[in-house]
Design brief:
The complex is a heterodimer of chains A (99) and B (371). Chain A is α+β, with helices and mostly antiparallel strands and 99 residues long. Helix content of chain A is 22%, strand content 19%. Chain B has a single domain, classed as YVTN repeat-like/Quinoprotein amine dehydrogenase (Methylamine Dehydrogenase, Chain H). The chains are: A alpha+beta (99), B mainly beta (371). At the A-B interface, helix 1 of A face strand 6 of B.
Chain lengths: 99, 371
């Protein structure tokens, strides 16, 4: 089963993809394992969602799924079954900021 | 057929402006990387089709782009700028120590003879180098050992914005940091020395003659006279004739000696350009008149250049990396404004025309002379 990921406009441009991305994720489906798979497929996204070294989420990036903001959950926590089973996407979102 | 390519970085994308040697009619391509802050776009002197661009965003961080065809197409290269070892701390706005944190690349300076070698000046201030066309970056860490703990960010951040390469002495480089000061290396970055003797920062530093911490806005050099440096400091226009060992003020009869960029004429090493700005509190031209000032005497005597520039109700700023020259027979001078205009003069500053008027705020202008 592939995990679906939606990316913000600028990261879709950077990765040169349109619409959603579908990824094979190894092991338990968590934010960390999905991002590992995403960056392995699209190396140009490294450093744009999480820090190269610490792997901390960048301040103005949020993770949404199934109507919930999962940004502050542990990155190893299992994502909802609907995401793991490909029924719902994990949304990588650029936070509202600025004016 | 000679021509010019003007590489413009703005708050919302990059633009490539091209013209033939007459510099009357311009082709405007862009925005490239629309919506991103483009701090610097530069071309390799060794291969004019090799360009590098610093693409940055508060949301998504730093990306470095490379073009092999003069800016028609681009590919992202490595964007990992990891400080060497334990980064340590520098002075923060409130005087406390603050960990070094990479934020963005302010300047990309390609080597004079190798398109794959590029120096990057970054915020928080440090110097990085790639020797493989951007596939990997490594820090030249000795720079931050020159009292880096005393460097303090200016209002725009602790950015390394100026990198000058000396064609006559390989390994010699001059760099400047706001607000760390100016520094020189003679050995390709293995060791550095602060260039501060003669600099005076009465209102910015508790010790006005401190070795480091001066808010140097820009340094310029003519390639034929690399021991002569011209500096636009926060306040004061300065000159050194001994490769930065000592400085003397050359503000002379300028209406104000605050400003950001400084440039040297391509063929006249004693002809220099600044754009006076009213003050550190009011970042716009005095009296609402946009005037470039030119000195043909290496400083002190200045003349306003106004032909074609707005002489009323003009309240834009010209940032430190937003002025450059070409090296055609009649030297061209270019600058971009925070109001989105890019002005060009094809006759050393005597007459100006806008190439474009309504770009996003211009962060940087660099020029390639295509022969």
């Amino acid at each position: 089963m592939k995990v679906r990921v939606t990316l913000p406009y600028h990261l879709r441009n950077l990765a040169r993809v349109e619409g959603e991305v579908a990824l094979e994720v190894e092991g338990p489906v968590s934010v960390r394992s999905v991002l590992d798979a995403l960056e392995a497929r699209y190396p140009t996204l490294r450093g744009t969602i999480r820090d190269h070294g610490s792997l901390q989420r960048r301040t103005f990036i949020r993770f949404f799924a199934c109507g919930e903001d999962l940004s502050l959950e542990p990155v190893e926590a299992a994502l909802p079954a609907a995401v793991a089973e490909g029924r719902e996407p994990l949304m990588v979102v650029g936070a509202m900021a600025g004016g | 057929m000679s021509g010019v390519r003007v590489l413009v970085g703005t708050k919302k994308g990059a633009f490539v402006l091209t013209s033939d040697g007459k510099r009357k009619n311009w082709d405007v391509a862009g925005p490239h990387f629309a919506g991103w802050e483009m701090y610097h776009v530069s071309g390799s002197p060794a291969d004019p089709n090799r360009l590098y661009a610093s693409q940055t965003s508060g949301w998504f961080g730093q990306v470095v782009q490379r073009s092999n065809d003069g800016g028609k197409s681009w590919e992202p290269v490595d964007n990992k700028f990891a400080y060497d070892g334990v980064p340590g701390t520098h002075k923060w706005y409130d005087g406390t120590q603050h960990p070094w944190e990479f934020k963005r690349v302010w300047r990309l300076e390609p080597s004079l003879d190798d398109p794959d070698t590029v120096y990057a000046g970054v915020e928080d201030a440090a110097m990085f180098k790639t020797a493989d066309g951007g596939k990997s970056w490594s820090e030249l860490p000795a720079l931050r050992t020159v009292k880096g703990d005393l460097w303090q960010p200016g209002a725009g951040g602790l950015g390394l914005h100026t990198i000058l390469l000396d064609a006559k002495k390989p390994g010699r480089m001059f760099i400047a940091i706001s607000a760390g000061g100016a520094f020189r290396t003679e050995d390709g970055g293995k060791s550095w020395k602060a260039m501060s003797k003669g600099l005076l920062s009465k209102y910015e530093l508790p010790d006005p003659q401190a070795e480091v911490g001066h808010c140097v806005h820009c340094i310029a050099m003519h390639p034929s006279k690399p021991d002569t440096l011209f500096m636009q400091k926060h306040w004061d226009v300065m000159r050194s004739d001994d490769a930065g060992e000592t400085w003397r003020e050359i503000s002379g009869d300028l209406p104000t000696d605050f400003g950001f960029p400084i440039a040297v004429h391509a063929h006249e090493p004693e002809t220099i350009y600044v754009v006076p700005i009213k003050s550190d509190s009011e970042h716009y031209p005095p009296e609402g008149k946009l005037r470039v000032y030119r000195s043909r005497t290496g400083g002190n005597q200045w003349e306003p250049l106004t032909n074609g520039l707005p002489q009323k109700d003009c309240y834009v700023n010209i940032l430190r990396t937003a002025m450059a020259v070409d090296s055609l027979d009649q030297c061209g001078v270019y600058f971009g404004t925070t109001g989105g205009q890019v002005y060009a003069s094809a006759d050393s500053g005597d007459h100006w025309e806008p190439i474009v008027r309504d770009l996003p705020a211009v962060l940087s202008v660099s020029v390639q002379t295509l022969k």
